[in-house]
Each structure stands twice: as C-alpha cells, then as structure tokens.
Design a protein that fits this description.
- By secondary structure, this protein is of the alpha+beta class.
- Strand 11 and strand 12 form a beta hairpin.
- The chain is globular.
- The structure holds 7N-methyl-8-hydroguanosine-5'-diphosphate.
- 7N-methyl-8-hydroguanosine-5'-diphosphate binds next to loops.
- It comes from Zosterops borbonicus.
- It catalyses: a 5'-end (N(7)-methyl 5'-triphosphoguanosine)-ribonucleoside in mRNA + H2O = N(7)-methyl-GMP + a 5'-end diphospho-ribonucleoside in mRNA + 2 H(+).
- Decapping scavenger enzyme that catalyzes the cleavage of a residual cap structure following the degradation of mRNAs by the 3'->5' exosome-mediated mRNA decay pathway.
C-alpha cells in the first residue's frame, strides 16, 4: 500500500521520540547532539542552505573524538505552508519599495526544522570528503584503473559496514521499501541518508545489491545484466507504488567513482538537482544496461571521467603517475 510522506512522517514521529539521541546499532555509540562541540566549518552553501561541520565529542578523560555534522534546512512541506503565513510569529518588515517588500519570519519550531546528519566517530577521510577543495577532472583508462585506482581502493576506501548492516537487516530494516532476496540478482531498496521522506521534491533512494563482489561500474559485465534489469524494473515499480512517482520522473544512475565500493544505484526525483547527479559523475542505469548488452566488456575498455578533489590521495596517485 502506498504511504504518503506525511503518513510516513507521522509514523516516525510517533515511533521515534528519542529526544535527539542517535540510534543504537553497529559501531555507533548513543549520544545527544548537545554533546558535540563545533571545531570548524568545513563547507557551506548559501544556495543549498547546508553547512558541513567538523565537530568533536569530548570524552570523560577530556579527549576529543572527531565527528562530522551536516545541518540542512529542510524543504517546505506543502501542507504546512499556509501556517507559515497564518500562525502568530515574529514578522519583521525589512524593506518596502513600490509594489515590493521583504519580511523576515520567525516560524514556530514545527515549521522551521533542520535536518542534522552525524557521522561519529568520523575518520580523517570523512572530514576531507566534506572540506571545500579545488576539483579536477581525471580521465581514467582501463590501464589506469588497474594500475592506479584498483590498488588504491583495495588499500583504502570507506568502510561499507553500513551496507552490510542494511543487507543483513541489522540497521534500517524498517525503512526497506522493496527487496528482491535473490543472492545473485537481488537487491534492497531503501531511502537514502540524504532524504527525510517528508516531501517528494527531493526524493532519494538507493538500491544496494546483495552480491558483495561488485565494487563499481568498472566490474560490470553482461553477466550482471539480469541483476541490473531487476534493479531498474523493480526499483521503478516499488517507488511508483509506495510514493506515486512514475518511472519517467526518476533519475536512476550509478556514480563513478562512488564513495562506497559496493555496487549501488541512486534513484532521485528528476526535478531534484541531487548532489552528484551531473555528467562528470552520474551514469544512467538504462545506458549502462544498453552498453553492456552491446559489449560485455564495455566498462573494461573505455576511459571514464570523474572529478577528484586536489587533496584526495587518489588525485595524488594520478599526479605521481603523470596523468593529470
Ligand atoms: P556513493 O556514490 O558511494 O557516494 O553513494 P556519495 O556519498 O559520494 O554520493 C552512496 C550513497 O549512500 C549516498 O547517496 C549516501 O547518501 C548514501 N548513504 C551513505 N550512508 C553512510 C548511508 C546509510 O548509512 N544509510 C543510507 N540509507 N544511505 C547511506
């Protein structure tokens, strides 16, 4: 049965009531947001109304453990918009000129939510990921992949424990939107960490495949076509059924390079300019399927372009190899 974002929200509010305390599970210890101290701003965007913070939690013996906190003003929820104008609150007229005027409103708490995403404990790599940096495009041939990228991702990449937790139902089990349990051609579809499910404008889900031997686009061959077709077909159907968004309004793609080397597919609302949905990083799943159907070793032949930040160790490896 379809569940609207509002109904979902209500269910979560009733179920949660955890007073801002992080959920237990995996390696994450329970803590309250107020235990965190801000160290510095890593990046902020006035346009996206988002700020990335390097924070720390001070332990009993006074030592600090790093955390990343992402604060984001949430999109408007259509059904609550009339209250913004009606409910008594501070409204300050800033300027008036002919037919134009600007007000500043201080909405009541239920209309001025901020989403806080916390990574705790955070590694240096997490902190670097969110730090604003100069970005360069890399053009990676298959040889570059084998000689530079593969050894690098084998030696260091983000832990994918969170993916295994989802696949094994140790975390986010109640958030699963669809599952095909087949060990080779199945997957789990869950709302992405970035989506609060309160509105469809920024709809964002990810499909995590059950197989654990596919790192990225580079590993895909025609052998994986049944799996990829299942993700495309069943993912679209499940989102249509649950959220009422048709497949023609979904952007369904893989990232290259991904941050997490366990094959997963992004599903975002077409009207949403999702981070990482631009041409230098996103590969439409339908195109990937067509390419593999035409040539099983397509992704072991062609060069792939992707952006890297100047401070990333992988960028340095490409630089050392004289490829930048
Ligand atoms: P990616 O292409 O590997 O990297 O995508 P990116 O984060 O640079 O885009 C991984 C996707 O998984 C992203 O869209 C993340 O927001 C999402 N994600 C990351 N984590 C740690 C979680 C998680 O714990 N739960 C869920 N549901 N999504 C996550």
């Amino acid at each position: 049965m379809a569940e609207s974002p509002q109904a979902k929200r209500k269910r979560e509010e009733e179920g949660e009531k955890n007073g801002g305390t992080a959920a237990q599970g995996g390696a994450a210890a329970a803590f309250a947001l107020s235990d965190l101290r801000v160290r510095r701003v890593l990046r902020e965007s006035a346009r996206d109304k988002i700020v990335f913070l390097h924070a720390e939690k001070i332990g009993l013996s006074g030592e600090g453990t790093d955390a990343v906190v992402i604060l984001e003003k949430t999109p408007f929820q259509e059904e609550k918009i009339p209250d913004l104008l009606k409910k008594p609150m501070n409204t300050e007229l800033q300027m008036q000129n002919d037919i134009y005027c600007t007000f500043y409103l201080s909405p009541p708490p239920e209309l001025s939510e901020i989403k806080a995403t916390v990574v705790y404990p955070a590694t240096e790599k997490h902190i670097q990921k969110y730090l604003r940096q100069e970005v360069h495009l890399i053009r990676e041939t298959w040889e570059d992949y084998k000689d530079i990228t593969l050894p690098f991702i084998q030696s260091q990449s983000f832990s994918i424990q969170w993916v295994y937790n989802i696949l094994e139902k140790k975390a986010e089990a109640d958030r699963i939107v669809h599952e095909n349990p087949d060990p080779s051609n199945g997957f789990v579809l869950v709302p992405d960490l970035k989506w609060n499910q309160n509105q469809l404008d920024d709809l964002y889900l990810i499909a995590l495949v059950h197989r654990r031997d596919i790192k990225s686009l580079r590993d895909l061959t025609a052998e994986h076509l049944p799996l990829l077709r299942n993700v495309l077909q069943e993912g679209k159907e499940a989102i249509g059924k649950r959220f009422g968004v048709p497949g023609s309004q979904l952007r369904i793609y893989l990232h290259y390079q991904p941050s997490y080397y366990h094959l997963h597919v992004h599903f975002t609302a077409l009207g949403y300019d999702a981070p990482g949905s631009s041409v230098e990083r996103a590969h439409l799943l339908a195109d990937v399927i067509d390419n593999l159907a035409m040539d099983s070793t397509y992704y072991q032949k062609r060069a792939l372009t992707f952006p890297l930040r100047a401070d990333e160790p992988l960028f340095k490896k490409f630089q050392e190899a004289g490829k930048v």
